[in-house]
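Example 3.2
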Amino acid sequence: MNPMNPMKLFKIKTAIEAFKANHPKFPLFLSAVSNNALQSGTVIEINVTDVNGKTYSSNLKLTDSDIELIKDMKDTFQN
């Protein structure tokens, strides 16, 4: 595994801040889900509709290892 590049982390952090500014309600939604719904067995469903109206859908059921990964990512990127 490669060591984390501090400049790349800074670039990602800057991009996350821009995303939050562009979509202010989405981080609030993620926070509510994170605080109330992330547990083993929770189902996450994602629907994406492209500009032509085609919809792509998928879902997954969270496992204990998924929850651990999410916690690790939160610890890495939290302010």
